[in-house]
Amino acid sequence: MEHSFLDKYSERASFLHSLDPRTKIISFIGLVVLIVITPPREFIIFAQYALMLSGLVILSRLPLLFMLKRTLLVIPFVLTIVLFIPFFKEGQTIFILNLGLVKTRLTYEGIIIAWNVLAKSVLSVVLLTLLVSTTRFAVLLKGLECLKFPRVLLMLVSFMYRYLFVLIDEAERMQRARTARWFGGYLWRQIKVIGNLIALLFIRSYERAECVYAAMLARGFDGNIRIINDLRFNLRDAGFITTVLLVLIIIWRHTLL
Asked: What is the pTM of this model?
C-alpha cells in the first residue's frame, strides 16, 4: 500500500523545507489571495508572479517534472470552463462562429476573462503544490492548528488522508478476490455483485473506524495533533516573509504609486 501522495518529497533538504509551516501557510495563502485579486489586464504583474514562483520552485529543489504533473492535474477542470467563456461573454466581437443552427460570437472581453481564470488557477496550484510538497502532512496540520483553524476539520482531513489509502487497498483486495471467482454472467448480475462489494466495503470501513477509535482512546487521544519536534519561528522565517513582502512591493510599485 502506497501512502506518499503528498509526502513524497517532504523530507528533502532545501530552504523551503526548513521553514516553519506557519510561515509557508501565511506566505503562500497570502500570495494566492493577492494573485486572485490582481486585475486581469495586468499582464506584466502576472509575468512577475511567474518569475517569483520559478524562484520558489528552485529553492524547493522539487523535480520540475513532478511540479509540471501536479500543475497539469487542474488544467482539464479549468479548460472545461475556460473554453466556453469567450463565446458567451458580452463585449467587443472578434469574429462570429456560424455552425448552422448555432451562431455564436468570440469576444475580446471573453478572452480576457478566460486568460484570467487560467493564469490564476495555474499560479495558485503551483503555490499550493509547493506548500504541501515541502511540508510533512502532520506538520502542515499542526501549523494550521497553531493558526487556530477548526480542530474538528483538521482531524477529519487527517483521518481522511491517512485511511483513504487503507480503504483503497481494501477495495483492491476485494476486487481481486471477485475477479478470481468470477465466471461471467449478465450485466445485471455484475451490477448486483458490485453493489454487494460497495456495501461490504462500507461495513468494513465502519468496523475499522470503531477499532481505530478504541485504539486511540486506549493511547490517550485528546483531540490534539502531536508531532515529535515543536514548531519554532526563527530569523530564517522572518527573513523569508520580509523578502516576499519586499518582492511584492516591487511588483506592485507602479500600481501603488
From this structure: 0.76
